[in-house]
Write a structure and sequence with these properties.
294 residues, alpha+beta, Immunoglobulin-like, 5-stranded antiparallel β-sheet, 5 helices
Amino acid sequence: RSCSFTGFSTLQSRKLAKSLSRSSVRSRMSLKSSKAYNSLQKGAVIWDPKPLQVKKIFEALKKGLNEYLEAHQAELDYLSGRHKDTKRDSRLAFYYDLDKQIRSVERYIRKLEFHISKVEELYEAYCIQCRLRDGATNMKHAFSLSPSTKASRESLVELYKNFQECTEDMCIIEGALEVHLGEFHLKMKGLVGFARLCPGDQYEVFVRLGRQKWRLKGKIETDDSQTWDEEEKIFIPNLHEKFEIKVTELRGLATILVGVVTCDSINFFTAKPQAIIVDITELGTIKLQLEVLW
């Protein structure tokens, strides 16, 4: 149904547009005054925010950080208990060693708490810009359905400008959030293929996450063990990219594609190392086994 703006004064529409603009500008000033992020320096800004993906990553990141916090809090409680017992026994050397460990864990806990608060602050700012952007979109749509006047055209121009500014702010915040995602340490555990893997077979595994690449070659030995020319690689998590894994079999000068799969990294944000098994072929006759430590 068409929407009429006869009850919405020109002054009110301009006030709303200016309010949106001021909120966006304030955010941009506070964000751009901080350090420049790598993704911005390289000109790799993605001017297409993905709020749903950012929400998933934020929830997984916060859950993983809280797991780390709980683990270190449990360690602190254990050390504090031993500290009290040792104090009663007057074993000074051991007592001071425990005291040093406790202080170290306490410092790490404070860092984790600051990290969590920073991530929450960034996501809150992101949600504000997202709502402002949605509001500008809805207002643009409403004005486009109303009779065209000079005031409505001016408001449309202002709203389009606000929309662009909010989009830019969201992308900047996404870049800032990526700085807090940590690292993924991937370890090659080998291929699993039962009858498909034979002594002498050679394979190449190619793992990619955005611009980050890892290419390694391996061979099946006579005792069914596997040797790989590289066993570990560090990847920097990315908000928008998934892991792409490609496995090929090397036969002399020829290569035979075994399979290509993609793997989401959302489940990798955990405090404990994870064993990941990926089906490379559709029937799962060849699998790739990795260990991921965040």
